[in-house]
C-alpha cells in the first residue's frame, strides 16, 4: 500500500479526519472527496476544505443535492429535529442510501484519479443502527464496485471494529489527537471542536474522549 493511492471519503468530522491521518501514514498518495448533499450545516464543507488544505491533499467536492430531495431528514432539514430512534428504530439523522451513493461515486472518482483504495470511517461498534455502516454492506459493495468497473478496488474501514474511545486512541497514535479535537466538526448543531455537548453525536464523541483520556492517565486497557 505504501506505493499506491487512496481516496478518503471525507466530511471533516472526527472519524473521517482520523481516517485521513491513517491514510496519510499508509499510502504514498492521498486525495479526499466530500459530498455536498444540502446538509444542515454548510460549515461542514468549509471545515473539510480547511483540513484538506492544511494537510496538503487534493480535495474533490461532488454535488449530491439529489439526495436531499429523495430523503428529507434531520441532517438536511432545519424543521426536522435531531432525535434518537425509539424502540430500536433508526434516528432522524438516518439518510437512506447515503453510504451506498457516496461510496459508489467515490469508486467512479477513484477510477478517474488512479486510486485503488477507498477509505471510509463507517463503524459497527459505536453507531446508531445505520444499515449502511455494517461490515457486511461494505464487503458486498466492494464486490459490486469491482464487478461494475472491472477494477480491483479495496474499501478500507479502519474504524469498523473499534469504539469512540479507541478511535481517539488511534488519532493519538497517529499524532493527531489535538488536531482532531480542535479542527473537526461532529456536532449536529454545527459547532466545531467539542461541539454543543447535547446532541447525540457530541455525547458519543465526548464520552469516548473521556474514556480514552482516563485509560491513558490510569494505564487501564480500553
UniProtKB/TrEMBL annotation:
EC number: 6.3.4.20
Gene name tied to this protein: queC
Catalysis: reaction(s): 7-carboxy-7-carbaguanine + NH4(+) + 2 ATP = 7-cyano-7-carbaguanine + 2 AMP + 2 diphosphate + 2 H(+)
Family, as annotated: Belongs to the QueC family.
Protein name in the entry: 7-cyano-7-deazaguanine synthase
Comment on bound cofactor: Binds 1 zinc ion per subunit.
Species this chain originates from: Solibacillus merdavium
Subunit-structure text: Homodimer.
Pathway per the UniProt entry: Purine metabolism; 7-cyano-7-deazaguanine biosynthesis
Gene3D superfamilies to which the protein is assigned, alphabetical: HUPs (3.40.50.620)
Family matches, as Pfam families: QueC
Keyword Transit peptide: no
Amino acid at each position: 500500500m505504501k506505493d499506491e493511492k487512496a481516496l478518503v471519503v471525507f466530511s471533516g468530522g472526527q472519524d473521517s479526519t482520523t481516517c485521513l491521518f491513517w491514510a496519510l501514514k499508509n499510502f504514498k498518495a492521498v486525495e479526499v472527496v466530500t459530498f455536498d448533499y444540502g446538509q444542515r450545516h454548510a460549515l461542514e464543507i468549509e471545515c473539510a476544505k480547511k483540513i484538506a488544505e492544511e494537510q496538503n491533499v487534493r480535495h474533490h467536492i461532488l454535488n449530491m443535492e439529489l439526495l436531499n430531495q429523495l430523503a428529507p431528514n434531520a441532517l438536511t432539514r432545519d424543521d426536522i429535529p435531531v432525535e434518537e430512534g425509539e424502540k430500536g428504530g433508526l434516528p432522524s439523522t438516518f439518510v437512506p442510501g447515503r453510504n451506498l451513493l457516496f461510496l459508489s461515486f467515490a469508486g467512479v472518482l477513484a477510477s478517474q484519479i488512479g486510486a485503488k483504495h477507498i477509505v471510509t470511517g463507517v463503524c459497527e461498534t459505536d453507531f446508531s443502527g445505520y444499515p449502511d455502516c455494517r461490515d457486511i454492506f461494505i464487503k458486498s459493495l466492494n464486490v459490486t464496485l469491482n464487478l461494475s468497473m472491472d477494477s480491483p478496488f479495496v474499501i478500507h474501514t479502519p474504524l469498523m471494529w473499534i469504539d469512540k474511545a479507541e478511535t481517539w486512541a488511534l488519532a493519538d497514535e497517529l499524532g493527531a489527537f489535538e488536531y482532531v479535537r480542535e479542527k473537526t466538526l461532529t456536532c449536529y448543531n454545527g459547532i466545531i471542536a467539542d461541539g454543543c455537548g447535547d446532541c447525540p453525536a457530541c455525547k458519543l464523541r465526548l464520552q469516548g474522549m473521556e474514556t480514552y483520556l482516563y485509560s491513558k492517565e490510569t494505564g487501564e486497557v480500553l
